[in-house]
Design goal:
- The structure holds two protein chains of two kinds.
- Chain A is mostly helical.
- Chain A contains five helices and no strands.
- The longest helix of chain A is centred in the last third of the chain and has 29 residues.
- The relative contact order of chain A is 0.08.
- A three-stranded antiparallel sheet of chain B has the order 9-5-10, with no helix packed on it. Chain B has a three-stranded antiparallel sheet with strand order 7-6-8, with no helix packed on it. A two-stranded antiparallel sheet of chain B has the order 1-2.
- Chain B is an alpha+beta fold.
- The chains are: A mainly alpha, B alpha+beta.
- Chains A and B meet through α2 and α4 of A and α3, β5 and α7 of B.
Chain lengths: ~80, ~230
């Protein structure tokens, strides 16, 4: 029974998670941006087609905004 | 039964959303992301919310190796992200019984590994025993030992439980929370971020189940257009 209880923690601490940690950190933002865009789009529309269009616009907006922030921080690095 | 009707521009049919009992829908939406929409028979949106929210929640939980979602109100470890994480409902609720079980120093359920204090020893048979027992001193001081490697417990061990708060006293250095940060590195923060965002996104899904989508009516669209034109002028 104890082994059954430990199954999920064992899976979580297995080598699979170790592999995930090798991914460059910037890629972690992709699932977050997609999920946020889709959920936000879904709260503004009822039909899937409209949700998809709104989500895509939100996605572009978020990526663009992140790009602007990245550019500001990158450029400001020259004055260090 | 509650119906929300959204008029559309021109000859288009209005959008009618049947919310059934919004209170039950909101409760179901909180307990399991998407369940409120299933109850309202809005299956496509239910699946969308469930997949989006639960995938980032469990991904974050896996990144943090089951340690990033826990409830603690202790001085020195006030876990505010849990108030956001609990937004996903049932998947975050095991943290509460874990907190109650460990509050007075008891062992948590689902022990993932144990940590031994500096004054433990290992005997001739390779077993960890408490201090003052003849044997060789180990290098296991405050390091993790998985149950399968050494299936032995002492009362002195600090146990890492799935979704349980860090065991042992809170100190400035070398406490269990510090070890989690040290072992998981940036994944602790990333896991916390993913699970917090999942909880917050489910609040939007609960709102959608309770009130319906925030669709702009033709009048609201006209007002927005007018405002935009004013700004551009």
């Amino acid at each position: 029974m104890t082994h059954l209880f430990n199954l999920l923690p064992d899976l979580l601490s297995s080598g699979l998670v170790g592999k995930v940690t090798e991914i460059p950190r910037l890629w972690y933002s992709i699932p977050l941006i997609i999920a946020i865009s889709l959920v936000y789009g879904a709260t503004r529309h009822e039909h899937l087609k409209e949700i998809a269009v709104h989500s895509f616009k939100s996605l572009l907006w978020v990526v663009g905004f992140m790009g602007i922030i990245f550019a500001i921080i990158y450029v400001s690095g020259y004055w260090n | 039964m509650t119906e929300v009707i959204y008029p559309q521009e021109g000859d288009r049919d209005p959008i009618v959303v049947n919310l059934r009992d919004p209170y039950w829908a909101a409760l179901a939406a909180w307990l399991w992301p998407g369940a409120g929409h299933f109850y309202q028979r809005r299956f496509a949106k239910g699946f969308l919310f469930m997949i989006c929210i639960l995938s980032i929640y469990f991904f974050g939980l896996a990144l943090g190796q089951g340690r990033v979602v826990y409830a603690s109100l202790e001085k020195g470890d006030f876990r505010w992200p849990y108030f956001c994480q609990i937004g996903v409902g049932l998947p975050a609720l095991p943290a509460i019984p874990q907190r109650l079980m460990t509050k007075k120093g008891g062992p948590p359920m689902f022990v993932m590994c144990e940590r031994y204090p500096t004054d433990t020893f290992i005997d001739e048979n390779g077993r960890i025993v408490s201090k003052n027992f003849p044997g060789k001193k180990t290098d296991l001081s405050y390091s993790r030992v998985d149950p399968d490697v050494l299936a032995i417990s002492t009362e002195d061990s600090l146990k890492d439980g799935f979704m349980a708060p860090p065991a042992g006293p809170k100190k400035d250095t070398n406490d269990v929370l510090g070890m989690w940060h040290s072992e998981l590195r940036h994944n602790f923060e990333l896991g916390t971020l993913f699970t917090v965002v999942a909880g917050l996104l489910n609040l939007l899904a609960i709102y959608d189940a309770f009130c319906g989508p925030a669709i702009l009516t033709p009048d609201q669209k006209k007002k927005l257009e007018a405002k935009r034109r004013k700004l551009e002028a």
